[in-house]
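tool_call predict_complex ligand=S-adenosylmethionine
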Amino acid sequence: MGALKFIVYFSRSPNGLIVGSLRHFLVPSLILAFTAVVETMGGKRGRTQRKHFKQNKENVWKRNRSSSDANTNPDSSSTASNNNNNHSPWEPFTTQNIDFDKYYKEQGIVSEDEWDEYLNVLHKPLPAAFRINSSGQFFEDIRSQLENDFMKNLAMEVTDDGEVDAIRPLPWYPGNLAWHSNYSRMQLRKNQTLAKFHEFLKQANEIGNITRQEAVSMVPPIFLDVRPDHFILDMCAAPGSKTFQLLEMIHQSTDSGLLPAGMVIANDVDVQRCNLLIHQTKRMCSANLIVTNHEAQHFPSCHVKQKYLEKLGMGNVEDEGLTQLLFDRVLCDVPCSGDGTLRKAPDLWRKWNAGLGNGVHRLQVQIAMRGIALLKVGGRMVYSTCSMNPVENEAVVAEVLRSYQGSIELLDVSTELPELVRRPGLKKWKIRDRGQWLASYENVLNYRRNAILPSMFPSGTSCESKMTETDNQQEDLGPSGDTTEIETATDLGTRLQNQNSIDNEQTDNCAAPEIVTVEENSCLPLERCMRILPHDQNTGAFFIAVFQKLSSAPVVLDDTSNLNGRSTHEDHKVPKNLSEKVVEGTIELEINSSEDAKPEQSLLDKVNPDDDVLNKESGDDASKLDSSGVVQEDDELEVSEVHEDGDTVHEEERGGSRKLPSQGKWRGVDPVVIFEDEATINGIKAFYGINESFPFKDHLVTRNNDAQHVKRIYYISKSVQDVLKLNIRVGERLKITSVGLKIFERQTSKEGTSSPCGYRISSEGLPLLLPYITKQILCASLADFKHLLQYRSIKFADFVDTKFGEKASELTLGCCVIVLNTGVQAFSDTIQANASTIAIGCWKGRTNISVMVSSADCEELLERLSVRFRSDKDGLEAKTKEAATEVEDAEETDKQADAN
Ligand SMILES: C[S@@+](CC[C@H](N)C(=O)[O-])C[C@H]1O[C@@H](n2cnc3c(N)ncnc32)[C@H](O)[C@@H]1O
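tool_result ok
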C-alpha cells in the first residue's frame, strides 16, 4: 500500500506561522493533493515568500532538543515516549500523544462513546476544500463546471478510502460556492478525468478564481454577516484566506466600475506574513483594502474628538469626514495552539502539550478586548481559533464578557447556518499545568501565578475574590449548583509535593490553600459559542464565538486585572470589572506599544507643524493611563492638532485645505503619498479617453515622494481615502504596508518610452477602468481574441478579421485594451463595458498587438472561454458574423451619407 514519497507540508504552526516541512516517510496512500500548496504556488511565488518558506522549513524527523528535553516537561513526557527511543529517521511520524488524549478526555470535549471515532478521524488526513471567488467574473461558470462536469464525471471515482461523492459542495456554505475534495494526489494523477480536475484546481487557484482554504476556516467570516458598506478590521489576518473572503463579501454585488462603500483593514504583526497576505489578497484586485502591521492588542486608535474640532472652529463633523476609526465588523482570528489543524499538520502530534494553550491565553484575551474596543455600537465581532482547547476559547470569551459586562452580548447564532454541524461551548473545564490538573485558581502555586491566570478558569476569579465568595456563600457555586468536590486540601498538599518533585524546583513560595477546591462551572452563556469537531463532518476543528456591542462601554483599567498573574507591567493593563471607576465613551485601550515610530523627517513635517508632538505621542501611549489606571479621555489625540506650546492650529493657518501628506513616520515602510501630478494624470486621461465621471482626485496614491520617478500608481476607494485622511490627522498612527489596487504602471520597455503615455493600465486596474475608457480600445471576435491569448502577439495583417487588424494598426503606439465581442456588441468604436465584459490589456506596437497578461492568466482565460462558449459556439460565431455585417452596413450607410 505504502510508497516512498517526498512530501512538502505547509502547515500552520501554533503561533500561526506557516511551517514547511520536508518529510520522508511511508505514505499510507492518502496524501492530499492540496496539502502541497507549494506545488500550485511554486513557480510563481515571489522572492520574499520563497525566503519565508525556506526559513521555516523544518525536518520533523530530525530529533531535536525539545523532544529529548520533553522528559523534563511533565506535559510532554509521554510525547517523548511516543517518539520512542529508536532514532531512525525513516520511521513514520507519530500521530499519538497520550497527553492529548488525557487532556481532552478530562475536558469532556466529546462523550466517552464518541471518543474512538473522534480520535480515528483526527488521525486521518484532511480532505481538501476550496472556495469559488464569488466576486470573480467567471464564478457562475466555475460553479456550473463543478456541478455539471466534474461532479458527474467523477461520480464513479471513489477515493482510496472508498468514499463516494469525493467532490461535493459543502452543504452549509451559501450558494454551492465552497467545495470538498477527498482525492489523494496519487489518485488525481491516476486517470485523465482526475488529472483534468487537478489541473483545473491549480490553474483557477493561481488566478484567484478559487481559493484553497480549510472548510472550517471559511466559517468565521460567514458569521460576521458582512454588508458591502461595512468597515471591517481583520486583526490577525495573515496569510489572508479570511481577508479574501471578507473582500469578496463587500465586493459581491458591486456593479462594474463602481466600488463598495465599505473597506477592510487586514492587520498582522509579522511583516513576512503580511507579505503573504498581500500576495494572497492581490488576486482579489481590491481598491478597498489596507494592510497594516501592528500588534493587534495595540492596534492604534484613530480618533479626532468632536470637542477638539469645535475648539478649532470646525464644529461640523460631517464636513471633516471620518473623525474616528471604529469598525462595523471585527474578525479576531487569533494566534493559537492550532490543535484543530492536526489532520493537516500531523507534526503537531509530536509537539502538543497542555502548556501551548495556556501560553497564548493572555495574548488572546488582550487581542479580543482590543477588538471590542474598536467595534462600533451595534457592530459584530467574531472571535475564532483553530484550537479545541477551552483555555483558548471559552475562557477567553468569558473573560471578555466579564470585562465588558452589559455592554456586549454573546450572540446566539444557532439559527444561522443550520446545516453546519457544531457543538455548544463548554461551561466547565480545567487547567493543566506541569502535569497537574487545576480546577480553580486557588490551586495555583504562587510561583506559577505568572503563567496561570484567574481568567483561565470558568469562574474567572482570582484567589482573593474566590475566598470571599466561598466564605460568604459556599452553596452558590454556579448556576447548576454543581459543587462536586474534586480535591481536598489534603489531596492538594500531596499533589503539591508530587509536583515539587516532578518539577525539581523550590516550593518555598507555594500557596498552601486551606480552602476546599470545587469544580467550577461558568455562569455565562458560553453554550452560545460553537465548537466544530473533526468527526462531525469530516473537517478540521474550529472554535467560533460571535459578539455584538450593545453600548459604548465605560471601562476601568486596573493592574489587578485577571490577566495580571505576574506583574503590574503596563502591557498587562486591560479592562477589569466595570463596577468601579468608569469613564464614559468608547473604550480606548492605549497600551504601551512596542512598535517603532520613526522620529524621522518626512513630507509630513512640511505639512504638519505638530510632528514633534505626534512622535512623542505615538511613542509613549502608556502616558494616557493616569495613576489610577483610568484612561484620560481628554488626552486622546487632541494633541495631534496642538503645538508644543499649547496653541491650537487652525486649518486655514496652514494654507487652506490640508493635503494628504505621506506616511513617513514608520521605519522601513514606504510613505503613502497622494499622487496629484496633474500633467501625468491629464496625460493618462487623454491617452485612454477616460470619461470625466471616473473619480481621480485623491484616489491615486503611490509609495514614492518623488512624483517624477513613480513606477506604480494605486487606486483607493473613497472609504480607504477617508481612513488615510484620518490617519494623517491623527499623526499617522497606522503603519500601512499595502494599500489599494495597482491601476497604472510606468512603461519600461524600449517601445514604451516612445509612447505618448508613460503609463500602462495594469491587469488589476482594468476591470475598474473599463467602463470609462473611450480610446485605445477595440472589440475583437472570439477567434481573434483566442488567438491573442494563445499566441500572445499577432501581426496586424494576421488577424482573422482584417478590419480589426486595420483598426488595431491605427491605434496610437502604447497600451491598449482588447475587448471580446460576445455577439451582443456591434463592431464599433463605442464599447459599452459592463460587469460581464471580458477584456485584456495589450500593447500596440509598430507591427503587431501583444498581450500584457501573464501566460497563466492567458491559459485560464482560454479555459474559461472554452467552457463558456462551447455550448453555444455555433450560436456565438453566427452572432459575431451578424454583428460584423451590421457594422459594415452601418459604415456603408455612413459613407453614403458623407458622400451626399
Ligand atoms: C491563526 S493565524 C490567522 C489566519 C488568518 N486569519 C487567515 O484566515 O488566513 C494567526 C495570525 O496572527 C498573527 N499574530 C500573532 N500574534 C499577533 C499579534 N499580537 N497581533 C497581530 N497578529 C498576530 C500571526 O502572525 C498569524 O498570521
